[in-house]
Amino acid sequence: MGMAGLGLLLFFAVMAISAPSLTPYDPQYTMQLASSRAKPEWLDPRLPRNTLIISDPGFSSTRSLEEWTIFEEGSSAVSWSDQEGYPGIPLIEEGSGLGSFQLTSNSLRGNSTILMEKAFHYQSSPPRRFSVHMAYKVIVEGNATWNIQVWVRQTDNVVLGFWNSSTKSGSVDWSIPKPEIDTNDASLRFRLFKDILADATRVFPVQGNYTLVIMVQTNVESGTVNIYLDDVSARIWGEAFGYLGTDNYGRDIFTQLMHGSRISIIIGTFSAIIAVLLGLIVGLVSGYIGGWLDELLMRSNDILLTIPGLPFLIVLTAVIGPSIWSVIILIGLLGWMGIARLIRSQVLSLKSKAFVEASRASGAGTWHIIRKHLIPNVMTMAYTQLALTVPGAIVTEAALSFLGLGDPFLQTWGKMLHDVQYYGAVAEWWWAVPPGICIASLSMAFVLIGYALDDIFNPRLRKR
User: Fold this and answer.
1) What is the rounded distance in angstroms from the CA atom of residue 281 to the CA atom of residue 89?
2) Is residue 410 helix, strand or coil?
3) How do beta strands 208-236 and 110-122 pair?
4) How many C-beta neighbours within 10 Å does residue 354 have?
5) How many CB atoms lie under 10 A from the CB of residue 423?
6) Strand partners, 71
7) pLDDT value of residue 194
8) Element holding 265 (H helix, E strand)
9) 130 membership: H or E segment, kind and range
């Protein structure tokens, strides 16, 4: 039992330590990795995966032009610029660094058109989402107008428009498309975060060849127009992702499972240490000193034992606030009573032994006897109780998180179960079952270790 428990504990310890290196995502804040509630990749090979249509969205070098087919009409030209780059939006998205496409229309009067086309082949079943992201900057010197459009050309040459800036004049600093609701294609698109999202079942109804097109039109009366394009990316959102799929926010469930082991081990271990220390102190003092102090401590113990633990924790957590340290302290403070009774019974047996009587007769004080003679003899029981208390702390924390009273900024297995219940995803067993199995397995590891320690330290059990 001990070896099996140590093996399980070692597995979860490795899982907790290696979580940041094995999972490149943040369990809480890395969202939109795929479609919401995407299934695991191994569940159905026919489900569409994430497809990144553009390999270099940041336009980081002159070679970025090679993956685009460019058509120029009129007095315009396309080149790569190392002077301009999309700086990003503070607190929302990072920039792409220096490097962008520069589309220039010179002072020759008349209309100019530039088409940038990226052809690709789609070979999966229709997905739910397709997104386009683009940043642009316009510098107008003189009298000129400009217009930028984004669309997809389907296999039968049907064109679906996603964004049209409308004809404008004047310069514009770095911006991202903001589609208008009253355009002809409003039923096709909707706005979410910083991307243009489309109903991909209409964009990619069949397998075949498609083309992403960016069209820039200018009308120069005098002067020049320079339009910079950067951070151009297009993605077909996968309906299957990773080992365990994604949740409602597109976060990786496998990442949440890996990082949840760290919090469960920390909470279980530290809560158990607090409970065992309190139980050890109360049991030693109550058992050896006795008298009115023993009566006071044991009656307090009895009162706390009669209070339902989980409801009391719920009330205290709601009052104090949900944080990892408040949960640890509360679980520890409400878990020492049974340990104190066991330690007290052991101390009552030990204090009548000959070596304790001899020490008292030789003039040793109370605290000397407790420190030198009683503590070493009850530590084996304390070690056993420490291992057996951890599972209760882990399950209690999972229950609090399941009820929505855990730390909202930390990912735990209980919080995963709370999300499953909150979003009605019980039927999606790849999301609901793994955290439950992990809670049970980690608890079982400590239970097996505790039973093994009990066998080792208790001669009577060892003889049986």
Assistant:
1) 56
2) coil
3) antiparallel
4) 7
5) 15
6) 115
7) 54
8) helix 253-289
9) strand 129-153
Strand partners, 159: 153
Q: Do residues 240 and 41 lie in contact, with contact meaning Cβ atoms separated by under 8 Å?
A: yes
Retrieve residue 146's tokens: 């400009």
The chain-wide mean pLDDT, for the chain, equals: 85
Provide the pLDDT for residue 12. 92
Q: Which domains are assigned to the chain?
A: 51-236 (2.60.120.260), 252-463 (1.10.3720.10)
Tell me the pLDDT tens digit for each residue of 353-396.
888 778 878 877 778 888 888 888 888 788 888 888 888 888 88
Distance between CA atoms of 382 and 394, rounded to whole angstroms? 19
Average pLDDT of span 312-321? 82
- The DSSP symbol for 250 reads S
421, 404 Cβ separation under 8 angstroms: no
Query: What length does the chain have?
Result: 464
pLDDT in the model for residue 277: 92
Q: Is pLDDT at 402 greater than 50 in this prediction?
A: yes
Q: How far apart are CA 222 and CA 100, in angstroms?
A: 25
Rounded to whole angstroms, how far apart are CA atoms 418 and 406? 10
Query: pLDDT value at position 370?
Result: 82
Name the residue among 420, 92, 415 with its Cα closest to residue 246: 420
Nearest-angstrom CA–CA distance, 460 and 457: 9
The pLDDT value recorded for residue 244 is: 94
Whether the Cβ atoms of residue 223 and residue 142 lie closer than 8 Å to each other: yes
Which has the closest alpha carbon to 136: 78, 79, 166, 175? 175
